[in-house]
Amino acid sequence: MSQHQRDKQAYLNATPMQREVVRRHLCDVLACLRAQYLSYQTSHWQVVGQSFYGNHLLFQRLYESVQEQVDQLAEKLVGYLGREVVGLDSQIKHIAGYTMRWSQIDCHHKRGLRSEADLQAALKRSYDGIKQVNAMTLGLDDWIMATANAHEENEYLLQQALTPVPGQKQAGNTAEDMFQFNPERREVLEFSETGAISNSPEVAAAASEEDQLDMSKQEAVELADEAPPTPTEIKEQPGGAGASTLNRLVVDTEDPAIAPAVKMNQSRMAAWLRELE
Length: 277
Hints:
Ferritin
């Protein structure tokens, strides 16, 4: 038996018309899932802001779940119609169509919701179309239902991420909004604004001479002095003996060795808030 025959032996009783209906609908779902995987993975890399870590993990959870569904559907298609129908050459334009449409939406969560709506529509078309030509199998019926159900959960998670917390001021899209409540990111912003070569005066001085930069040694040292502290300087600040450089992140503790950092950080954050007012 040839490889081509082995690829199709599971569904030799399907008519050419049934094959075409199944191919058209399921390849649409597959392209949508592959596009959604790329979209969610990109959002995983690109999210920023106060809820960065939570959103970073959310989009990782989403793209990993979609990857499993892509594999499941591709294997069903290979079993039904043969390997050629899942080839990138036959899918790429369809994948690009979905990703280009979604990429017009700036908000990662709203982009995800649009992709979920498109996928649910593709699943519904597939279910109805394949049923209509009597080509639905029990396994495929179960897979479509389970996938639709899983993506309803995805929609719920994305909608919850967009729901404002009562009484909480919503962040905007400015650099100040993205950095104001995270000491490490705030200091990256402050360092960028100084224009310093380094926050170490010694390193800045050497670089201005050795690398022939368009900056005098004196200016390089002055800018380094204005920049946020080095890790060594941070460890010498309150709480450094107990928490090392993590003393910059402490807002509450019962450890007496770290407690001095709390007052320092409260003062710093209060100053940041005054800048915004």
